[in-house]
Amino acid sequence: MLSVLKQYWYDSYSNIRYPYSNSKKQSNTYLMISDAFRGLDYWRGFMRPPNYEGVIMDIHKYQIFSTAEVQRSKSEHIAVACAEGASLASFSPSNLFTVVGEWAPAATDCAKYLNGRGVGSRYDGTFPGSTRVGSCTGLTGKASTFSAEYKTFLRQYWEAQTRAYERGIGWIQWTWKAEIADEWSYQAGLANGWIPQNPTSRAYPNICG
């Protein structure tokens, strides 16, 4: 399957970057490809400059879709996020521009319908086959139900992730707005203080050491 995917990207590159009848004239449109959840090391040497120009690698980073991940402490979540920076820094300069195109301040899978309609969460043990870590109360829903301590963690985790992901070429948080899961919402984060109005402002500038 990956061989088919790679060929699709090779073919797409030609169509997107050289769309004109004069095959030597290059478009300024960038081609964004996915790591296919294989990790960056798998893609070392793939579609590298100078033979390929204008290719961006998109990766998604969450720590919520396994029992082991939701069992992590707050400090462990932050440490894992910070460690991602080294991988991005070693890959992006000599391979492909790399953007973390999905991530969130959420450290649990408590958000309603996150795992599917009618499917529960690993964190509270309602996901099939999971072991309960704790209660989802106060960890998802409206920000008005969040404690000051939890909001502080959301700010720290947000800063740790942005600090790490900017060691690539940047990040795009998922998502701008959520119906009933403010821990996922950039809009709610701005309104409630765990995301700064200026994303370069840091309350914890040494969060990753």
In short:
Helix content is 30%, strand content 9%. The protein is α/β, with parallel strands linked by helices and 209 residues long. A four-stranded parallel beta sheet has the order 1-2-3-4.
What is the number of strand segments?
A: 4
Shape: globular
- Mean pLDDT reading: 96
Question: The biggest beta sheet, please?
Answer: 4 strands, parallel
List keywords for this structure.
30% helix, alpha/beta, single chain, 209 residues, globular, 5 helices, 4-stranded parallel sheet, 4 strands
Describe the protein's architecture and organization:
This protein has 209 residues and is α/β, with parallel strands linked by helices. It has helices at residues 2-17, 67-70, 74-91, 148-165, 186-192; strands spanning 31-34, 55-60, 97-102, 170-171. A four-stranded parallel β-sheet has the order 1-2-3-4. The mean pLDDT is 96. Helix 3 (74-91) packs parallel to helix 4 (148-165).
Fold blueprint:
Elements: H1 2-17, E1 31-34, E2 55-60, H2 67-70, H3 74-91, E3 97-102, H4 148-165, E4 170-171, H5 186-192
Parallel strand pairs: 1-2, 2-3, 3-4
Helix pairs in contact: 3-4
